Amino acid sequence: MSKKQNSKKKNSSDDDNNIRIRRIVMGLGVILIVAGFFGMDLNPDDADEWNVSEEGILSYSQVEDTQYSYEELSGNTTDTLKLVTFESRGAQIEGILRIPQSDTRVPGVVVLPGAGVTKEMQNRVPETLADLGYASLTIDQRNLGGINPESDLEIFKNGGEPVEYLMVYDAMMAADVLQDQTRVENNIAMLGLSNGGRFAIIATAIDPDIKGVIAISTGGYDTDSIDRNMVADETAYRFYTSIDPDNYLDIIPPRRLVMFHSVNDSIVPYEMAHKTFSKAEEPKAFYGLTGDTHGYSQAVEGYMEEELDLIFN
User: Pairing relation of β-strands 284-289 and 256-262?
Assistant: First the structure.
């Protein structure tokens, strides 16, 4: 199997997103923790479609019927390459479908790039997956994975569906599109990088049909360390809890969680990722990688085959 080295790249959008969310979580711990407790009814008008529990866990009652279109892509490869466009809660989501040559149907992996990273920029991951015999669908996330939690909180307070929830839903829709391919098995996993890793963890948790998740250069926000009995703004607490992958970890087993993280990652601190991993239950695996790469690297490739075998078998 051919192996190519991926160039190292730090993404300013990822950096901005992580700085913003860390400040918000600090705000939850410092500004919102005051004497008193109150709440409000946040059952949305379309609660039959999505809901956030009192514990701050997002859920969707169902995923829409899959509607998508194809455009053939050319490339210097024997893999099948297609540009796929699918409808997802009022948006047209684009992705690159890659299916390796095989005499039998193959498992599939949904790939969620980090903030500011397009599906075309994340080509090394699907190439590696194809080398290992897996199909993939790499999507352009809404806002290219960028988030605005302050704006989403206002939407949530008004009973609307925050963009970050829509991004989780898009990931689940992508899994359905990938599974719908005649050459792909009913065997789909999630792989997310940086901010995409957070959505991959949440989508895996709330969609029982997803077999497992690989999260690269990502971590949760540690909102579960806040004493809920001392939170005044229950609305903000529920929302920030609902977008924190740490709070979904116990829903994933018996499916497998795999995390890769560089020890000197300057965008998502190593300690942040390891804390998330420590909260997860078995089956799980954590790989601390030497260097300062944020995102996919050649070091990840050495473990991918074994971990995907464990996820799908």
Answer: parallel
